[in-house]
Amino acid sequence: MQEVNDCFTKVKKDCLKFIASQETKKDKFKNKDKMIKSYLIPLSFWIAKRANKKKPLMIGLAGGQGSGKTTISSILALILQKYFKLKVFKVSIDDFYKTRKDRKLLSKNKHPLLITRGVPGTHDIDLMLKFFKKVKLKNFKSLKVPKFNKAIDDRFKKSLWYKLKFKPDVVIFEGWCVGARAQKVSQLKKPINSLEKVYDQDIKWRSHVNNQLKTKYKTLFKHLDGLLYLKAKNFNILRNWRLKQERKLWVQTKNKKNLKIMSSGDVINFMQTYQRITQQMFKDAIKSSSIIMKLNNNHQIQTIKFKSK
Question: The domain 2-306 belongs to what CATH superfamily?
Fold first, then answer.
């Protein structure tokens, strides 16, 4: 306990400063001290214990849309760097989305719904596998990592990509479908929402997505040394949180032109593309994760369960 208190004293100021940068007038974080001290510091000790200076520890962080992955991963990185003196690089699976041009091609060749970023099959798997391979090289020097701009629904130009200039001790790889598993073919038959019912009557889209999980994404997720999972109570709560997220993006970018910020209706339709895998992860990720953080209705961590010691 003394170690936790000591860590809290050293990181509190920086953590609270970061949290303040994420708040808006309407959306304020509650019980900040408890979140840091009771949940994120013990989690940081768990990660630090497994870190090996010889090769990066690859940690996956999964959770539904709007569950707080970016905030949690940022605070974890901050604690690991400041208190444990570890080199941390955090990256989102979102940054590896295929370009808009590539998704247009995919939508013509495979299924029109694949123009919409998000589901397995809309990421550049080769680029991700290259990243995982290069970051582990003994003679690592530097690496450019893609960066995706959701406001224009396309990748940033290369000059704006992340520049990784050090070999990390820990990589936090976060994303809504990180660690997701494929369903049985029989589970795909019945549509689970209006989008599947209307736009995927022949089951082509969900079969393609499921096949991606069964093959390429399965290979990708094998690179992870552990999986952290943010478990929301249900899909409706996630939808509300995602709407909040979009409002925040609108506030941050309201004076810029040519942006693809979504309306509430757009968000609800967009979320339907995520629904099947998200709901399956409610069942699967509970079994496959190293650590499960259950979230309450107010977007706060309620409990944390360490499954692997």
Answer: P-loop containing nucleotide triphosphate hydrolases (3.40.50.300)
